[in-house]
């Protein structure tokens, strides 16, 4: 484990780029207060009490030029986000003044923070564990209230405590096993084997409980990849526009990639839908020749949920049948749209074609039946768990992967004991389980992993 206690002082703009009412430049490290004070005209920041905020001006000490009118918050170690001294300079929003202040701080001894470095320090200084660090990122990207609640639970350390206790239990047993081996008078293999078996079964059950939450956890965190498909003119854009209307649309900026990708999300009853290929839907509107089916095929591959729209005012076409056939194996919602017009397709007709789902009869134009679509999305994904807000949900692939590896190790413990393998071999598998769980919280995580994990954060966090 890393055990560095002294770090240089880092600085970054902690508010999103662009114009705003205020921007915040943040400094953290041993010299944070000293450096801020060098460029601040107002009270002597090195003398002020911790957790106080001060009015003043940022002045370039070499040119004596005044850069901005600011409020500077001074927070001394250890009760800060990073557990280091922190100064936050609230300046007037705007790209140029904010960047000038940052440049000035860099010229006076601070180093530009790497993405996620503030949070990384909070982790390295022992204020938070890895699951909490990850939840900071999840919180920033939370798409619905529920997603936020899950991230907050994790930030509170609920997952950390759970894992921590599992590890404690395992190490208690391992210590006991060690004692039994070291003192031959107690060396009753049978007793030792029983102890290990009981613990392995118990921990395995708890890991399985956690893994069972993963599907919902992942949907809340990453969104449910959803494709709205159907041949031209059935009402896809109308449905999309309905879903995107008002404050339901969430456009997130996916950081950490070389090119920022914009993803469109809609919040449907707490389920964040990540809409796939909406560009495709928008685009085809303008084209004389619409390429409905071809485009739909492409969107299908990455989707967790298909919303297949049919125009019930026209007889079922060959294209419709093809789409019904293509999506047979996928989780889907079938909408019989344009119910305001005389109906040429009935639910019974679809059933005769082998469609097992009940289609939803709707008129997007008249706003009829869409509530049923939203309700269906919600029940499809949150069936039993929607009210259990306090649950610990595992939500990211790293955590899921490690839990699975821990479970595999426990399976080896169990099968080894059943096969009467020597206790010291079984002990190794139990130790592996303990290590894998430790990687989840970071108590036992390799440095590269930590570096890689924090590099996914946005700048200034
Ligand atoms: P897309 O090509 O599948 O995206 O279909 P659009 O959403 O662009 O809709 C095609 C046409 O159908 C437009 O003129 C819409 O106004 C119309 N439309 C969409 N939904 C309904 C509906 O429920 N009833 C009726 N009567 N017309 C609809
Ligand atoms: Zn359209």
Automatic annotation (TrEMBL):
A Gene Ontology BP annotation from the UniProt entry: tRNA methylation
Subunit annotation: Homodimer. Heterotetramer of two MnmE and two MnmG subunits.
Coiled-coil residue spans: none
Positions contributing to (6S)-5-formyl-5,6,7,8-tetrahydrofolate binding: 26, 88, 127, 461
HAMAP family the UniProt entry points to: GTPase_MnmE
Residues noted as binding Mg(2+) in the record, renumbered to the chain: 237, 258
Note describing how the cofactor binds: Binds 1 potassium ion per subunit.
Function: Exhibits a very high intrinsic GTPase hydrolysis rate. Involved in the addition of a carboxymethylaminomethyl (cmnm) group at the wobble position (U34) of certain tRNAs, forming tRNA-cmnm(5)s(2)U34.
Alphabetical list of Pfam families matching this protein: MMR_HSR1, MnmE_helical, TrmE_N
GO molecular function, one term: GTPase activity
Domain TrmE-type G, first and last residues per copy: 223-382
Entry's EC annotation: 3.6.-.-
Binding site for GTP: 233-238, 252-258, 277-280
Subcellular location: Cytoplasm
Keyword terms of this UniProt record: Cytoplasm, GTP-binding, Hydrolase, Magnesium, Metal-binding, Nucleotide-binding, Potassium, tRNA processing
Binding site for K(+): 233, 252, 254, 257
Name under which the protein is recorded: tRNA modification GTPase MnmE
Family: Belongs to the TRAFAC class TrmE-Era-EngA-EngB-Septin-like GTPase superfamily. TrmE GTPase family.
Annotated signal peptide: none
UniProt xrefs under Gene3D superfamilies: P-loop containing nucleotide triphosphate hydrolases, Probable tRNA modification gtpase trme, domain 1, tRNA modification GTPase MnmE domain 2
Cofactors that this protein relies on: K(+)
A GO CC annotation given for this chain: cytosol
Superkingdom field: Bacteria
């Amino acid at each position: 484990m890393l055990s560095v206690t002294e770090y240089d002082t880092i600085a970054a703009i902690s508010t999103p780029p662009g114009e705003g009412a205020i921007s915040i430049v943040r400094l953290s490290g041993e010299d944070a207060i000293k450096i801020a004070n060098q460029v601040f005209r107002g009270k002597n920041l090195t003398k002020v009490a911790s957790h106080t905020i001060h009015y003043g001006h940022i002045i370039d000490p070499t040119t004596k030029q005044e850069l901005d009118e600011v409020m500077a918050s001074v927070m001394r170690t250890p009760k800060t986000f990073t557990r280091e001294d922190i100064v936050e300079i609230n300046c007037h929003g705007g790209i140029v003044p904010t960047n000038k202040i940052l440049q000035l701080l860099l010229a006076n001894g601070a180093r530009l923070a790497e993405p996620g470095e503030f949070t990384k320090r909070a982790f390295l200084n022992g204020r938070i564990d890895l699951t909490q660090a990850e939840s900071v990122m999840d919180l920033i990207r939370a798409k619905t209230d529920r997603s936020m609640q899950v991230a907050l639970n994790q930030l509170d350390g609920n997952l950390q405590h759970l894992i921590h206790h599992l590890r404690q239990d395992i190490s208690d047993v391992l210590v006991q096993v060690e004692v039994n081996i070291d003192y031959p008078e107690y060396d009753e293999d049978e007793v030792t084997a029983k102890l290990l078996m009981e613990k392995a079964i118990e921990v395995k059950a708890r890991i399985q409980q956690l893994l069972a939450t993963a599907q919902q956890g992942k949907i809340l965190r990453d969104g449910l990849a959803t494709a709205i498909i159907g041949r031209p003119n059935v009402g896809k854009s109308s449905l999309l526009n309905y879903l995107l209307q008002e404050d339901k649309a969430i456009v997130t900026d996916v950081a950490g990639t070389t090119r920022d990708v914009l993803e469109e999300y809609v919040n449907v009853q707490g389920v964040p839908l990540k809409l796939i290929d909406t560009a495709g839907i928008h685009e085809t509107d303008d084209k004389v020749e619409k390429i409905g089916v071809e485009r739909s095929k492409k969107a299908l591959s990455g989707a967790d949920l298909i919303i297949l729209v049919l125009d019930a005012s026209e007889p079922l076409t060959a294209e419709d049948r093809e789409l019904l056939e293509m999506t047979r194996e996928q989780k889907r919602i079938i909408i019989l749209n344009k119910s305001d017009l005389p109906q040429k397709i009935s639910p019974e007709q679809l059933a005769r074609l082998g469609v097992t789902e009940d289609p939803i009869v709707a008129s997007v134009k008249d706003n009829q039946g869409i509530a049923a679509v939203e309700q269906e999305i919600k029940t499809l994904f949150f069936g039993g768990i929607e009210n259990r807000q306090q649950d610990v949900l595992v939500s990211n692939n790293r955590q899921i992967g490690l839990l699975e590896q821990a479970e595999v190790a426990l399976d080896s413990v169990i099968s080894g004991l059943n096969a009467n393998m020597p206790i010291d071999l079984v002990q190794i598998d139990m130790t592996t389980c303990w290590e894998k769980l430790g990687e989840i919280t970071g108590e036992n995580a390799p440095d590269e992993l930590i570096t890689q994990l924090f590099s996914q954060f946005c700048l200034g966090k």
